[in-house]
Write a structure and sequence with these properties.
This protein is mostly helical and 248 residues long. The chain is 76% helix and 0% strand. Helix 6 packs antiparallel against helix 8 and helix 6 packs antiparallel against helix 11. The protein is globular, with a radius of gyration of 18 Å.
Length: 248
């Protein structure tokens, strides 16, 4: 997933932990609805990391230099390690990783099919923009999780190096050929809309996750806060676009 410095600042995203967010997994998981929400969350994250691994491996085939190919291969390896941490955790809490991931496979595959990049630069922008939006979304949710699950989720959102790599390569490409910037800006705006719509659909289809997001099993969110959350995600996207040298 994306780099912490490109993600939403924790101080802006959530108040001090209370309720479930101040409990450990052993205490919080006695609530069956909360447990179901966490299983869904870990399943969604795990499939997302597996898909990121596959995407980076594919992007490596389009890399223009051997150095770029090796860099993407290293990042793909880091994503797979994150995937393993999540599936190990699901097994440790006596959940079947494949079953937990299954509900999220089709919507995520659909998203990636609808936003298939046409070249190397579009692939870099997609990973930078799309993965960053997902990371922001999961960081928002993480603030409402029990301490053990929150620690795991934040650890798999750690930097793989892709953010800085994408910024460097995209800015260099725009400097070499300025008209590329317009095409990539349109592409990034499309990705933003598709990524937010996909996140909303996934949550809406999973009762436990949607209940967590708006209140219910985890305190701190209400419908107004959901709106503010998406505003923060949009603001962070605008900052990332500026880092790429693109207009939001």
């Amino acid at each position: 997933m994306e780099t912490p410095d490109n993600a939403i600042e924790a101080s802006d995203a959530a108040p001090a932990p209370t309720g479930i967010a101040a409990q450990d997994w052993g205490t919080a998981s006695t609530d069956p609805q909360y447990r179901a929400a966490v299983v869904d969350l870990l399943g969604a994250l795990a499939y997302g990391e597996l898909a990121a691994f596959e995407r980076l491996a594919e992007d490596a085939k389009l890399a223009p230099t051997l150095g770029d190919k090796a860099a993407l291969a290293r990042m793909a390896s880091a994503e797979f390690h994150h995937f393993e941490k999540l599936t190990d955790r699901l097994s440790a809490i006596e959940e079947q990783p494949t079953a937990a991931m299954e509900p999220f496979a089709k919507p995520l595959d659909d998203f990636h099919r609808q936003t298939a990049p046409s070249d190397w630069l579009e692939g870099l922008v997609k990973a930078y923009v799309g993965d960053s939006i997902a990371s922001d979304f999961y960081r928002e949710i993480a603030a409402r999780l029990d301490t053990d699950t929150r620690s795991l989720v934040l650890s798999v959102l750690d930097d793989t190096g892709h953010g800085n790599f994408a910024v460097e390569k995209v800015r260099a490409a725009i400097e070499a050929e300025p008209r590329v910037g317009g095409r990539l800006a349109l592409w990034a705006r499309r990705l933003m809309g598709e990524a937010l719509s996909q996140a909303q659909r996934v949550v809406a289809d999973r009762d436990a996750l949607s209940t967590m997001l708006v209140g219910g099993v985890a305190d701190g969110f209400d419908l107004a806060e959901v709106g503010r959350m998406f505003s923060r995600i949009t603001e962070a996207h605008t900052k990332r676009m500026a880092a790429l040298g693109l207009a939001a």
